Amino acid sequence: MTGRAGKDVVGENFVPGAKVLSLLPEKRGNDINGLGEGAVRRPSPIMWHDPSILAHGELQKWFFENLMAADAQVHRKQNMEFTNKPLPPLAETVQQAEAREWSAKVKEAALVREADQVAITRLKPEWIFEGYEAPYEWMIMIAVAMDYDCLKTAPSAKSQTEVQKQYARGTRAAYKLAAWMREQGWDALPHGGPQAGPVLMIPAAIEAGLGELGKHGSMISRRFGSSFRLACVLTNMPLVPDQKEVFGADDFCTNCQVCTTVCPVDAIYPEKQTVRGKEKWYVDFDECILYFVENTGCGLCIGQCPWSRTGVAPRLAEKMSRRRDSAGA
Fold first, then answer.
1. How many other C-beta atoms lie within 10 A of the C-beta of residue 7?
2. Which of 305, 303, 278 minimizes the C-alpha distance to 147?
3. Rg for the chain (alpha carbons), in Å?
4. What span, in angstroms and rounded, lies between the C-alpha atoms of 267 and 2?
């Protein structure tokens, strides 16, 4: 079983290992994700939730047990310890303020607690995973930048370690922000990757204005390109949503072929696909995961994305924005 071209980064055929093939479930990941479905529905848990509830649960466990770089494991362990750390109790007195004031305070609090960028959006029901509950109105989205010099080495132990390091930082930032909010008397539930939580974070981050969806299935930010990770805090604290921002990354991806060319298994579709009732860029899960689990989490597509190079994203976003304005988009 190989990708549409069956290539790898040095041009040779990639053949999945027998062990990985033996751990694949009967149900395809693309079907679980809702590829080709015309109706909007909640997403189904896949790959990164509790392995006991997943079709791909055994594959997930095998990956973490066998192919995680030693330094990456250190950061993952620290992340899990922070994830399992109990939150402080809610303050008995609920602090009161206007929604705009709380929004400003939340962003300020997050930025001094390891976040690199913060934005707010209203939680939509179609972002909540099947089998999970999220009785909150708002999502506070947190972005943490990655070191591009590490990311560009993907797939490598160095890149994988940087990914786990920044996921851990995102988790800490979310936890610290939630703790601060609870000190103000407002319930807050933090979450950071790589393990999935109750809600999808990428659609929420896009809606909050942190970036656009790239052809490689990850986000593109006007500040960080594809070189960043997400975390979030769910809350009912009164807040004001930020505006979705379109600066031209989607237009750029339509014509760019970098990620489709470098993908070792041709998992990146050249055109948008219908997924759970919405047209979007989509990465073939069943092709991607085969290479991903055997090659330190891969990451070639975002490591080689033109937007990820240090200092490029702000200039490219400005250029694309001007082009959209002149075209009347």
1. 18
2. 303
3. 20
4. 10
CA dist 294 to 190, 196, 308, Å? 30, 20, 24
Are the C-beta atoms of residues 171 and 102 closer than 8 Å to each other?
no
In a domain, 4, yes or no: no
Contact predicate 290/16, CB 8 Å: yes
Map residue 108 onto helix, strand or coil. Answer: helix
| Cα–Cα dist 76/193, whole Å | 10
What whole-number distance in Å separates Cα of residue 207 and Cα of residue 193?
A: 19
Q: For the segment 34-81, what is each residue's pLDDT rounded down to a tens digit?
A: 999 999 999 999 999 999 999 999 999 999 988 778 899 999 999 999
Tokens 């479905």, residue located: 37
Number of residues in the chain: 329
Q: Which residue range(s) make up the domain with 122? A: 18-327
Give the 3-state secondary structure of residue 189: strand
Q: Using an 8 Å Cβ cutoff, are 204 and 251 in contact?
A: no
- Helices 157-183 & 70-83, crossing angle to 10 degrees? 10
> Is residue 209 a part of any domain in this protein?
yes
Q: What token pair was written down for 219?
A: 């986000």
CA dist 222 and 220 (Å) reads 7
Of 150, 81, 158, nearest to 308 (Cα)? 150
**Per-residue pLDDT tens over the stretch 242-255:** 999 999 999 999 99
Using pLDDT thresholds of 50, 70 and 90, give the confidence band for residue 12. Answer: low
Other beta carbons within 10 angstroms of residue 101's beta carbon come to 13
What does the block give as tokens for 148?
């591009």
d(CA 271, CA 234): 33
Which of 84, 114, 78 is closest to 228 using CA atoms? 114
| Total number of domains in the chain | 1
Report which secondary-structure segment, H or E, holds 145.
Answer: strand 138-145
